[in-house]
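Many introductory courses stop at the sequence. We go one step further.
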Amino acid sequence: MDFFEQQDKARKKTVQLVLLFLLGLVATLIVINIICFIGFWLLWSPEQFSAVSTGSHSQSVLFSQFIEMTGYQATPSQNRLLNVWQAWWSSNLNWQISMGVLVAVLIGTLFRYLELAGGGRKVAQWAGAIPIEMNTRLLEQKQLLNICEEMAIAAGMPVPEVYIMAQEKGINAFVAGYSVDQAVLVVTKGALDHLTRDQLQGVIGHEYSHILNGDMRLNIRLMSLLAGLVMIGQIGRFLLHSSFSSTHRSHRSRDGRLAVGLAAIGLVFAGVGYIGVLVGRMIKAAVSRQREFLADASSVQFTRNPDGLAGALYEIQALSGGSQLIHHHAEDMSHLCFGETVALSDRLATHPPVLERIRRISPNFVAKERSRRRKDETAQSSVSRSQPKAFDQALAAATLTALVGQVTPDHVNYARNLYQNIPEQVKIWVHQSQGAKAYLYCQVLLGTGDMRQSVLDTIKKEDPSVLASIQQIWPYCQKMDEQLRQPILELAIPTLKRMLETERVIFIDRLERLIELDGRVDFIEWITLTLTKRRLALVSVNRSNSLDNKIAPYFNDLQVLFNVLVELNPDKQAAEAAQQAVCQRLGMECKPNQTLREVGYDRVGAALQALENVNFMWRKVILQGCADIVESDGAIGFREYEIMRVVAECLDCPMPLLMVGAGVFDERDIPIPFG
């Protein structure tokens, strides 16, 4: 699976989605007009025709002239049909009905788009889900958070906010959001109750692949577009409900006639609106089916445990309610979820048949004994703190750019080992608001040197409630292996996201001021600040579907980025030669010898923000150029790989965590003047 190709396909899929929507809208208009014409035909009489045709004489004359020109001789029954059609056309009812349908579709689409404009968190709330507290004591919820954190660390992506649909007994899950850093994961209570750890990991791997493949944005747009097509049916159901309610409230004959009239109109609207529902289901099936197969395959690639995902699907097959949801938006969410949310025929289903999905994952699974599944690993399994083991074999298997968006079983196993190396007490602290803020303050303290007391005085003045947590976490941060810092930051982010927006803005502003106190910014501080601002959505990120296909306007930004990577490389001569080759491939002039001290981290950040506007195929070229410079000396240092990960992160190309042997101190980690 090529990450950049999948991202490009996902964006092109949006164009296909719009075309399918327009075709579906045309089909809906045609069918609705045919149904209305049949009704007009049944109710039509010549006397009514003479009434409705007044003021439409010119259209009637044109229609008659057309018949005369063709010389067509019709039978009496055909004459009646032609007269009815002439009356229908002359009445302008066809245009009025078509305009009414278009207005209803537009209103429905616009309303749903505005309703879901808040992204993943808004979709989760719209689906009736509630957030899982990071310090929850429920074992099944702890296990879910444990899996999400492990796999996010393995994939090099933010830990998504985790929600639960507490009223849903079916086995299901979905992810939603407009970008990787704003994704949320929603799981049903039934999934937690019925699935083992391995099965749940398979489901989470499936959903994470939707994040990495760029499906989330496509699914939300699909939901908005299709809301318009089903708007007429929803109006019909509302009128039916209103008619039944008014009948129960009043027994007067006049009110009874009104209720019957509302019911009749509602029944017609609901029947006609079902056409939109049918077209919507066909569009969902066309868009979703192959992407579900791809997500299943990616999940197996992540975990190297096909029985885990196959077991989850088999549980859906065996459960009486399967993956169905009782929520009133179940139909709208059908293409979002891991399994079917409503009972549909296979031809209209948004997902492939469950047994077919199992067969593709593990052909012999159904015949296997269920008792052979792995023993469940509890959420409260003890962890031991030891020096993390480096594994460099991933580099031998693939280049750096080939790692983007790829999560292998080695990454998952390594992330599990890394997660276990994080002190249990630190996990508890960063899952609490004060502890999460304290951890970030400690990262600033690590880079302030002689100004440490001034930083503490500022924190004591502006955020005194966090001092006790700083005292608890600080000893761990001083002794902790450097390679654990960013994974722990990822564990703290979901807690920080639950702060109010004003609180997040104040917190980030305070972090920036604390970093500026010593007049410089070091590597750790820059990494921490850059990732935190992106995770908390306090930097502008290109959310549009329109990306620049030209690279020339960004040559100056690329020069800044390449020069920084050259400076971080121990072998300057080899790095500069690689930079020359990369610039030559891109057709840009090479301007070396611009040091990081001269550039400053703020200029690097501005360059990365500008490069967010290029399309994904150019992003692949950029990352490959960065990788060529980094790998030019035949080795990858810890800080080189970390800055590669930040570059990939800023380009929305998550790169899995890879440990490459950090040293105690790196002389190249020179603090740079701030600004």
